[in-house]
Amino acid sequence: MNVEKRLLTLPEFYRPRSVRKTFTYGEIAAGRLKVVKVGRATRIPVEAAEAWDDLVLKGEVGPKRDKAA
Asked: Which of 38, 44, 57, 66 is the most buried (most CB within 10 A)?
């Protein structure tokens, strides 16, 4: 059965984006990155990861954005 992966683990989210785990948790706490719980595990829906990527491209979030602006 070929099932498309719909949920990412935290490392599958933050490693390719070159952000740290603590930054990822901060984005979750701020409500900019949506997650789901699967038992005790935290997973990021692919759609939520793509929406966060769009915010980064717009310059609205990201680890290197200028906080003074």
From this structure: 44
Q: Does pTM surpass 0.90?
A: no
pLDDT at 59: 85
* 29 contacts 9 by C-beta, under 8 angstroms: no
Dmax over CA atoms of the chain, in Å, equals 50
Residue 65 three-state SS: coil
Contact indicator for 26, 65 with CB cutoff of 8 Å: no
Question: What does the H/E/C string look like for 17-35?
Answer: CCCCHHHHHHHHHHCCCCC
Distance, in Å, from the CA atom of 26 to the CA atom of 33, rounded to the nearest integer, reads: 9
Cα–chain center distance at 50:
8
